Amino acid sequence: MKKSYIVAITVLTLVILVEGFFAIRMGKDNDQGNVLLSGATNALYETGNENYYDTTTINYENLTELTYSDWKQMKEDGKQFVFVIVQTTCSFCHQYEPILDEIAKEQGIPIYLLDILKMQDTEFDEFIASLPYFSENERWGTPLTMIMKDGKITNTLSGLASKDETLSFYQQNGIISE
Fold first, then answer.
1. Cα dist from 102 to 44, 64, 85, 112, 162, whole Å
2. 32-172 CATH fold
3. Looking at 51-99, which runs of residues are DSSP E strands?
4. Which of 27, 79, 81, 150 sits between 20 and 30 A of 70, alpha carbons compared?
């Protein structure tokens, strides 16, 4: 009886430790977005399963999907623009995209989506290294809205936000008028 009790506790402890390890290694969902830990690489390549992620294009009329090279060129141009870092597999991103699409249409502003799961490992590493935000914020997640001007991030809105919260953020940052 005593031996089976010890074995059961040992197995339970191992299960908890293994689940904790995988939650940290592969990222985990929370109530604000899909969290990536500092130094995380493109999970598509970590799994070794190239068919794991749906890589279809964004199907919203008023949103524009950026490639990494598009984003890099826009950053170098120095003009102000809004982009949202998303992941194809992020349920919070999928909830946020219709809100962004509606705002882009109503306000007549361009909103760009940058899907980090569609980047090559080298592109992802270069992207993360190019913005101090990521070294200053060890934990970050998607969706992550960023305003860029003169090649620098001027402000961010982290996680899934309501339409009103997003409009307020854009107003506070001069993207749209009140």
1. 30, 13, 18, 13, 12
2. Glutaredoxin (3.40.30)
3. 63-66, 81-86
4. 27
Output 54 or 119, whichever has higher pLDDT: 119
Task: Tally the residues of the chain.
Answer: 178
Q: Is 154 helix (H, G, I), strand (E, B) or coil?
A: strand
pTM to 2 decimal places: 0.69
β pairing state of 144-149 and 152-158: antiparallel
Q: Are 143 and 162 spatial neighbours (Cβ–Cβ below 8 Å)?
A: no
pLDDT tens-digit map of 67-82: 999 999 999 999 999 9
* Pair type for strands 139-142 and 152-158: unpaired
Summarised one tens digit per residue, pLDDT across range 131-148 is 999 999 988 999 999 999
Question: In the prediction, which pLDDT does 9 show?
Answer: 64
Instruction: Return the domain boundaries, the chain.
Output: 1-30, 32-172
d(Cα 118, Cα 57) in Å, to the nearest integer? 10
The whole-number pLDDT of residue 33 equals 43
Q: Is the peptide bond between 98 and the residue preceding it cis, with omega within 30 degrees of 0? A: no
